[in-house]
Design goal:
Chain A: It is found in: Cell inner membrane; Endomembrane system. Chain A: Its EC number is 7.-.-.-. Chain A: Part of a membrane-bound complex that couples electron transfer with translocation of ions across the membrane. Chain A: The chain crosses the membrane at residues 20-37, 43-61, 73-93, 99-117, 129-150, 181-204. The complex is a heterodimer of chains A (231) and B (220). Chain A has 10 helices and 2 strands; from the N terminus they run αααααααβαβαα. By secondary structure, chain A is mostly helical. By secondary structure, chain B is of the alpha+beta class. Chain B has 2 domains: 1-53; 57-214, no CATH class. Chain B contains 4 helices and 6 strands. In chain B, strands 1, 2, 3, 4, 5 and 6 form a 6-stranded antiparallel beta sheet that branches. The chains are: A mainly alpha (231), B alpha+beta (220).
């Protein structure tokens, strides 16, 4: 049962099955809005909210929905939530909304959301679907935020610029600057920079993952050498 | 699954319809709850950008709702151009043109150009553009001071023949690696000033009904 526990769900969402870095889903918003850390965080959180809402709903209705029409129904559910979230952001985070603009409605086309609805939420209980939605969403947010921070830092020499749009005036001081001498690497801001950055992040993740089995193998080998392990 | 109902198609259709109704209801309710706030946000955003060019204390009319639409594609860019009118005690103070720059480096650039009644600029702001990040986008206020260079300028300061970027023998800076963007904006601002010189007086009349009645009140 350890394989299906909540810990596993969270680890899958944040790392092992990260929708952006492993499943490579939702690349359209991922590549388009990650020019600053704040943009990445904003769209990531909006996506997480939609993912939690849609996973919850799909899980609740999973015994009601007929096989033949399940996909249109999932699409309807997701589209309704995205539209509602878009309206809410326009009302309560207007400045951020103006920057993220077209990409909020495009959350509908994020394959990660319908992917989780179909592959997980439609087959699992409410608390598990909720956990999965939250973990997958946060994993996606983490990837968006990291890529945004990386591109912003390399491309513009700042970090958390316009944080005030999201967290209010008090967050203006969060903005870090590398100083006047740094003129920015244009490539990082342009669309190709998004692909290169994503490639680097995936490589980094694979590198980190690749080390663990090697360490484990090393430990196993040592255990065998010293005597029978616990198995 | 199909055994549960004799007519699975109809059951499926009804189910789908049910969800369509539920989804639409959710969206309609959210829209209703947020409508007022969104309209208010948009008004505040518009007022914010207008007041940056025409300070709120210099006018007393409802500038966001006091506008005329004019048409001069060669000088103002678009087929139709909205002009916001700032007045104090009924007298014209400044006109804010929503000019368009037709020849930006990558697509049109939308501007707000405030012209005071004495023909000087109250300022220029870029509303939207698609110029190259890191090069042409220094025209944005938050990325550089360049756009502030228009404040107080007019067709006589510098002279009309100096309304060019420095590379072309004028008074305005270009950017390293991006000359086309500043050049096109300088030209568009100059054209807006020329339009104001020739047609500026016509903009402020007729005054909108609300303002006109106010002016005829005894205290006005």
């Amino acid at each position: 049962m350890a394989e299906t526990g909540y810990g596993k769900l969270i680890k899958d969402g944040l790392w092992s099955n990260n929708q952006a870095l492993v499943a490579l889903l939702g690349l359209c918003p991922l590549l388009a809005v990650t020019n600053t850390a704040v943009n990445g965080l904003g769209l990531g959180l909006a996506t997480t909210l939609v993912l939690v809402l849609s996973n919850t709903t799909v899980s609740l209705i999973r015994n009601l929905v007929r096989e033949e029409v399940r996909l249109p129904i999932f699409v309807l559910v997701i589209a309704s939530f995205v539209t509602a979230v878009e309206l809410a952001m326009n009302a309560f985070f207007h400045d951020l909304y103006k920057i993220l603009g077209i990409f909020i409605p495009l959350i509908v086309t994020n394959c990660a959301i319908i992917g989780r609805a179909e592959a997980f939420a439609s087959k699992n209980s409410l608390p598990r679907a909720l956990t999965d939605g939250l973990a997958m969403g946060l994993g996606f947010t983490l990837a968006l935020f990291t890529l945004g921070a990386l591109r912003e830092l390399l491309g513009m020499g700042t970090l958390f610029s316009q944080a005030d749009l999201m967290f209010g005036e008090g967050a203006r001081g969060l903005t870090l600057e590398m100083g006047e001498a740094y003129h920015g690497m244009l490539l990082a801001i342009l669309p190709p920079g998004a692909f290169l950055g994503l490639g680097l992040l995936i490589a980094l993740k694979n590198l980190l993952d690749g080390r663990r089995p090697a360490l484990k193998r090393g430990a196993d080998a040592r255990a065998e050498a010293t005597g029978p392990g616990e198995g | 699954m199909a055994r549960l109902s004799r007519q699975p198609v109809i059951a499926a259709a009804l189910l789908l319809a049910l969800f369509a109704v539920a989804g639409t209801t959710l969206v309609a309710l959210t829209e209703q709850q947020t409508r007022e706030r969104i309209a208010d946000n948009q008004l505040q955003a518009l007022l914010g950008s207008l007041h940056a060019l025409v300070p709120a204390e210099t006018i007393d009319n409802d500038i966001a709702n006091d506008s005329v639409t004019v048409s001069d594609p060669t000088r103002l860019g678009g087929a139709e151009t909205l002009v916001y009118l700032g007045r104090k005690a009924g007298r014209p103070v400044a006109a804010v043109f929503t000019s368009m720059v037709p020849d930006g480096y990558s697509g049109p650039i939308r501007l707000l150009v405030a012209v005071r009644t004495d023909g000087t600029l109250g300022g220029v702001r870029v509303v939207s553009h698609k110029e190259t990040p890191g090069l042409g986008d220094k025209i944005e206020e938050r990325k550089g001071d360049w756009i502030h260079g228009f404040l107080g300028k007019s067709l006589t300061n510098p002279g009309i023949e100096r309304w060019k970027v420095k590379r072309d023998g004028g008074d305005f800076d270009q950017f390293t690696g991006a000359t086309i963007t500043p050049r096109s904006i300088v030209k568009a601002v100059k054209n807006t000033l020329l339009y104001y010189r020739d047609h500026g007086d016509g903009l402020f009349r007729p005054a909108p009904r609300g303002t006109q009645t106010d002016r005829r009140e005894p205290h006005g």
